[in-house]
Amino acid sequence: MHTEKKSYECPDCGKCFSGNSKLVIHQRTHTGEKPFECPDCGNSFSQNSHLMVHQRTHTGEKPFECPDCGKCFSLNSNLVKHQRIHTGYKPFECTDCGKTFCQNSNLVKHQRTHTGFKPFQCSDCGKCFTIKYQLMSHQRSHTGEKPFECALCRKSFSQNYQLVIHQRAHTGEKPFECALCGKSFRQNSQLVVHQRTHIGEKPYDCPVCGKSFSDNSNLVKHKRIHTGEKSYQCQYCEESFIKKFQLTSHQRTHTGDKPFECPYCGKSFSHNFRLVIHQRIHTGEKPFECPVCGKRFIKNYYLMIHQRTHTGEKPFECPDCEKRFSQTSSLVTHQRTHTGEKPYECPVCSKCFSQNSNMVIHQRTHTGEKLFECPDCEKTFNQNSSLVTHQKTHTREKLY
């Protein structure tokens, strides 16, 4: 094997070359000379070979084809790197952790996780990044640029991956499936959070009260309870809220928006939970059962009130006479006996009542409506209490 003699020395840096032509090319790195100009865009290059490679960006020429998958490249070096995907060859090894990479550039980026080196700094806020594309993505948060647009609804995004996820809302694609229950998700992060419901994992702890959460976003929302932070402000009345959904619900009190419609009767509601409760009137569903007597209720609140008939609990006390009640509505009605307030007025004769139920009964004297019928003689009454009194006359007759 012969060693090539390097007789041509660079007078600027002392580097030696085997041929004068190579020395001439090298010296252009010192002089900055770029004699080869692209006729399409005017870009200049120090070597003709570099110009030829560049011109492929204009012509679209990709002469180097992968024999395994047929993918083409404009540079042979890019083909060599690509082929490592097929061969699995990873010649670049991290000296800190032993992880290997198919490209040296990927190794360089990886090593920054060990050194903490972040060479790419944002000129607006000073935040630093390990990879250039991370800086470019971050800078869009300052410029507001959203270059990735959905072809279906024209919504724009600052990151391409956000567009990809958004497009699944149109296609219905849910590529991430739970191996335990088969439920599918649009995002892998959603699957990861969901899987914690199976294993019970809650890795995010509140540093104030120690409560744990399966999702970091839920922890962030929870911490606002401790800090009192209310990030979501109403544009109509300036009231602020801890959670966004609370603001959305509140704003409907201003707009009158009722987006949740009952499929049975068409009645609309401002909140979905109210629609769910309302639908039980149609379905007859009563999911809340009293453990003492088995009686069932549409709302959990009704069950709580009912249970006080068993426990005897009367948590609501009248401040005037200390009489106690099992419901706050009963206390409010009772307090009118002290204040003399009668807020319910008959629209026909203007007589006032302390309870709405009494006004409803009174109005039947004007309408002549008698809803309560005696099963023995078919006589009708406008109050149930009058029917009960009447029925006693039949009971006495039967006794004698």
Automatic annotation (TrEMBL):
Keywords associated with the record: DNA-binding, Metal-binding, Nucleus, Repeat, Transcription, Transcription regulation, Zinc, Zinc-finger
Pfam families for the chain: zf-C2H2
Coiled coil region boundaries: none
Alphabetical list of SUPFAM superfamilies matching this protein: beta-beta-alpha zinc fingers (SSF57667)
Source organism, top-level taxon: Eukaryota
TM region positions: none
Subcellular location: Nucleus
Residues of the C2H2-type domain: 8-35, 36-63, 64-91, 92-119, 120-147, 148-175, 176-203, 204-231, 232-259, 260-287, 288-315, 316-343, 344-371, 372-399
Recorded GO CC terms: nucleus
GO molecular function, one term: zinc ion binding
Sequence similarity: Belongs to the krueppel C2H2-type zinc-finger protein family.
This protein's name: Zinc finger and SCAN domain-containing protein 2-like
Organism listed in the record: Notechis scutatus
Gene symbol of the encoding locus: LOC113427232
